[in-house]
Amino acid sequence: MTKTIVVTSGKGGVGKTTTSASIATGLASRGFKTVVIDFDVGLRNLDLIMGCERRVVYDLVNLVNQEASLHQTLIKDKRVENLYILPASQTRDKDALTIEGIARVMHKLKKSEFDYIICDSPAGIEKGAKMALYFADEAIITTNPEVSSVRDSDRILGILQSESRRAKMNDDPVKEHLLITRYNPGRVQEGQMLSVDDIVELLAIPLLGIIPESPTVLDSSNAGKPVILDQTSLAGQAYSDAIDRLLGESKPHRFMEIEKKGFLKRLFG
Amino acid sequence: MSSNSVVELKGSMYTFLSLKLHSGDLSAVNEALAEKVQQAPGFFSNTPIVVDLTAIEDKPDVDAKGLLAAIRDHKLVPIVASVHNRDGDLARDIDLPLVEARDRNTGNDTKPAAQASKKTSTESAESASDPVFDDDVASGDQTQNTGASVDSSKESAETGDGAADNNAGSDADREQSATGSHSMDPIDLAMSGAEVEYVVKRPKLVTRPVRSGQQVYARDTDLVVLGQIGAGAEIIADNNIHVYGPLRGRALCGVTGNSEARIFCQSLEAELVSVAGNFKVLEEIPEHLHGKPAQIWFSDDKLHIEPL
Predict the structure, then answer these.
(1) In A133, A210, B15, B202, which residue has its Cα 20 to 30 A from A269's Cα atom?
(2) What residues of chain A lie within 8 A of the CB of B215, using their CB?
(3) CA of A151, closest CA in chain B: separation in Å?
(4) The complex's ipTM?
């Protein structure tokens, strides 16, 4: 059974693409055949984060318009077995997507026996975001610890529960997961950020993971390598934990406390 | 000068007398009307009337125009007719605005004879161009469990009737003293029944959270929400609102003019609360009530917010 997971947030710049890349990479490295689709038509980014920007020939819009085959369009990842990238078009806009066209793509992916389809949603609540979430079975709501991001997440949760295919067909509702990114316990303590408890209370959905704020996230993005592949970084470990929980394991949440500085660190700052 | 200071268009609720015709026989109706009006000529003179035709609309050979003329002869002013079928012969014959009676089961004829209770007393209408009232709305809108003028004897009569006890209101008081009539009468001038039958409309129940940007409206009834109301969400009801999760968005009750509607919540964090158009924003809500169980209601021209 193919599972379709949308990574969405409403607000831009909170880490949807970073999360999509790491979640897809994490699932694939555990042996699941996984494809990650960039729905941000016109603002293609996922290929950069995945480090495959030089290999893009066809894109999602070509596939939707039946100008290319699935085989031609999918980019196979060079680092991780079972991982495929379906890039967005940079020259078109969101109007190039239709529900019927996406439905055809989804059907083909299911026939190709993918275990997971990860949909990287564009920001906003317009057509692109609605297309990305329409076929979702589960949703990872990416939220930064600040009020505007939380409110936008609340908004997208409402859309998810009223405009997704599951909502329209009266199926079981889309399963919701909260992923808090850019979490900085120090700034929470100083009152500059919302705490995990605050966010969970405001959104009232189960917590999938907390990704600590870390310079390695930006470094990895610049290097075109999903941060989950860097298991020395806390963010990479946090994404691995999130994958475990996504697969049904129960793991205690980490990275909620301020990191204690070691002796050497205290000595040298 | 803004257009609003010259004319103001808004939805409002009014209470009207309703006249239910049980017979299409012109002379019988005429006679019965004469008898009714004679009891209180001053009261009925030039009174606007909602004519309830639901009991006779399916009968053949009813002279609708004649019936209306008879009603006008007795100085009553028919303003609107209530029917089940807008396209029926009777409905087509008359030159009155029509409203659809929504529930066929609320008429007298479907009640057990032994009950001898009378059809509802009041008709309420919106002054808006598309009136949406009908007889089953009437009792729901005019009445509510928090009404200040509930008459205890009335309430007990009602519960004996098997009707829910959440319907009683100021308009109901008047009927009490009026004389009784029998259901076999050719006409039934409401507000003259000895007992009043109330129709309960089910509240709208929402079990999931209401998210930012979502809007939920409970038409003609109460709204009950078990989950939270997110900031930027809006919940609206014609009657009371009950929220069991945190209320962070906007809550507007009694939007069609029912100023007796109330809001009850477990944790008051609302951006805005409103009763029949009278609102307060969070800033005006006393600090010590934030996050506390509270109720909001309207009386003496003021919005009251108090802990539960």
Answers:
(1) A210
(2) none
(3) 7
(4) 0.80
